[in-house]
Amino acid sequence: MTLILFNKPYGVLCQFTDGGTARPTLSDYVRTPGVYPAGRLDLDSEGLLLLTDDGRLQARIADPRHKLPKTYLVQVEGEVAEPALAQLRRGMRLKDGMTLPANAERIDPPSLWPRDPPIRVRLSVPDCWLRITIREGRNRQVRRMTAAVGHPTLRLVRWSIGDWSVAGVPPGEFRSG
User: Fold this and answer.
1) Per DSSP, what are the bridge partners of residue 131?
2) What's 126's DSSP letter?
3) Which terminus in the chain has less CB density within 10 A, N or C?
4) Relative orientation angle of helices 82-90 and 141-148, to the nearest 10 degrees
5) Comparing C-alpha atoms, which of 74, 60, 77, 64 is closest to residue 103?
6) Where does the pLDDT of residue 123 fall: very low under 50, low under 70, confident under 90, or very high at 90 and above?
7) How far is the C-alpha of 162 from the C-alpha of 63, rounded, in Å?
8) Is 42 among the residues known to form the active site?
9) Containing H/E element for 93?
10) Ramachandran region of residue 91, left (φ > 0), alpha (ψ -120 to 50) or beta?
11) Confidence band, pLDDT 50/70/90 cuts, at residue 125
12) DSSP codes joined into one string, 4-38
């Protein structure tokens, strides 16, 4: 069984072909034959993507029924106060229904790699960092959650899935799990 922990850079598609879009794909970084992503990360998100050649493991990682915790480091617009964090922790109504409660806390700015391109900084609008852990994986869920509490996401980095972490893996690089 092969398991790869890949640090997906911003702007890379979570598939091996580009469908004619001329965007970077996993094939530009991972040359290991027979592996497939277990889950997805949006084009504008960064961080941990697991790839495996084991269909059962892929299903266990990607299937929301298994509720593997996924932890994200999230830079948001504005200064997040306790009421917004409490709303994230309770669970919230999005267009596709209620979310499960999340673990959510403010954190000091993490020591991360620079993003290319950098986020847009507005001198008149402060920002802060959150650590958010969810146990489901709806489309753009963390971004929609932070927007729903009034703090749009500026940068989103998936840091871990279950016990697997991207710590020590530079962007565009991978290691065996």
Assistant:
1) 73, 105
2) -
3) N
4) 130
5) 74
6) confident
7) 13
8) yes
9) strand 93-94
10) left
11) confident
12) EEEEEPTT--SSS--TTS----GGGT---TT-EES
CB-facing half-sphere around the CA of 119: CA atoms within 13 A: 22
Residues contacting 66, CB < 8 A, separation 6+? 60
Query: Quick one: which of 146, 110, 112, 132 has its CA closest to 10?
Result: 112
* DSSP character at residue 43: T
Spot the catalytic one: 42, 53, 127, 163.
42
Position 121 scores a pLDDT of: 81
Of residues 127, 131, 84, 83, the one with CA closest to residue 106? 131
Angstrom distance (rounded) from CA 116 to CA 111: 15
Distance CA 152, CA 150 (A): 6
Contact 129, 106 (CB under 8 A): yes
Domains annotated for the chain, with CATH where assigned, are 3-64+164-176 (3.30.70.580), 69-161 (3.30.70.1560)
Q: What is the pLDDT of residues 95-107, one digit of tens each?
A: 999 999 999 999 9
Nearest residue to 158 (alpha-carbon basis) of 39, 78, 33? 39
Task: Find the mean pLDDT for residues 13-37.
Answer: 91
